[in-house]
Amino acid sequence: MPWTAIVNPVAGRGRTQRLLPELERAASAAGIALHVSPEPGAPTKLARAATDDGHDLVACGGDGLVTEVAGVAADTGQRLAIVPTGAGNDFARVLGYDPKHPLRAFDVVTNGHDRVVDLGRVNGRWYTCVTASGFDAEANRWANTVRRLSGTTLYVAAVLRTLAVYKPHRFRVTVDGNPLETQAWLVAVGNGPAYAGGMRVTPAARLDDGLLDVTVVGAMSRMEFLWTFPKVFKGEHVANPKVTTLRGEHVHLESMDTSIPMEVYADGERVGPLPGTMEAVRDALTVRVP
Fold first, then answer.
1. What is the DSSP string of 106-168?
2. pTM for the model
3. Which residue of 55, 199, 212, 218 has the fewest C-beta atoms within 10 A of its own C-beta?
4. 280 forms bridges with which residues in the sheet?
5. How does 32-60 read in b/e, with b if 16+ C-beta sit within 10 Å?
6. How far, in Å, CA of 88 to CA of 108, rounded?
7. Domains of the chain (ranges, CATH numbers)
8. 23-27, 76-80, 133-137, 177-181 — which is least confidently predicted?
9. pLDDT for res 31
10. Percent over 90 (pLDDT), the chain
């Protein structure tokens, strides 16, 4: 089966652009057609054109591009491989790819094996890792405006900046028909365990269980939130009694105070305002993994 690679040249705060000559050489050596996306929205068009020709897909970029191309692969029944050149690379990392050596991923196309995994959907849109609202949505919005930082450093900076301006919000979280009304810093709904470059916000989430994991970080002081935050890198924040974890196939998230606009972000990209409806889609995607 032939493969086509789709490249987001702005992924990784310029890293992908710098790697572009090497990406082109590696793709050519592997017999993979490579297309560089000229603008936002183009990756979907390029991916659909490739699948119309019967090609499997390689996503070269970060989680935003990977999610976009993964959605086309899921819709068309084609396979996905990843060259992780973005800032976060959370989906690639949980699948076993090494973001420190992204060019090695071209060997995976030839020598890897296929794995079937779940995807999530939020308001009808595919996502691979985590959908969230509240504190981290605001942090994500600000991080997307920054160009001088990347990776974990960027997300830590976003957390510290948002901590100064954000306060807990009232949400209703309904999991498989069971509602919970809560004052919370954030609500995260994970198909996978991590987002934002390795923050294990839903640490028990698995890509092959047909379920979504929900983490609700309840109301606490700013100092306690700041004390708890570093524990997210190991998933240890869930031990805090003010953090609630839930699991189910369907999640509906609403704002209980509509005077304050609340956004939903999925895999680092804006989806839109609340409410948000998330569902787990079992066995949605076949991925080529190391």
1. HHHHHH-EEEEEEEEEETTEEESSEEEEEHHHHHHHHHTT--S--HHHHHHHHHHHHHTT---
2. 0.91
3. 218
4. 120
5. bebbbbeeeeebbebbeebbeeebbbbbb
6. 20
7. 3-111 (3.40.50.10330), 127-281 (2.60.200.40)
8. 133-137
9. 93
10. 76
